[in-house]
Amino acid sequence: MKTSAIDSGRIEAMMAQLKAAAQKPNAADVVQGATGTNMAQKTQSTNRVDFSEVLKSSINQVNQAQVKAEELGKSFAMGDDKVSLSDVMVAGQKANISLQATIQVRNRLVSAYQDIMNMQV
């Protein structure tokens, strides 16, 4: 399998998507809001983007895409009439593209880390 490099514009677009996904309220925020937490504290916490949460969210999205593609493939192989070959192929390509983009982001982060570690102080 041949992989090609992803240009920096695509990586920046993915990072923007990751930031947008990280700012969506999750179930814990909704539960805290229902119990009557201070709204000022809640708005302050939503303005701050935690890198580890963004990374975890993006990896979970890649995993979900891969699981969905695998489930569709198994359903199609078992002869499920509700699943078409085009659905299986599209889901597989989406999972592959998201994985390749994640790998490219990881490679860029490792490269940046190595550059920083090699700097003379």
Automatic annotation (TrEMBL):
Pfam families assigned to the protein according to its UniProt record, in alphabetical order: FliE (PF02049)
Keywords: Bacterial flagellum, Cell projection, Cilium, Flagellum
Compartments where found: Bacterial flagellum basal body
Predominant location: other
Origin superkingdom: Bacteria
Stated family: Belongs to the FliE family.
Designated name of the protein: Flagellar hook-basal body complex protein FliE
Organism (species): Methylobacillus methanolivorans
Lineage, top ranks: Bacteria, Pseudomonadati, Pseudomonadota, Betaproteobacteria, Nitrosomonadales
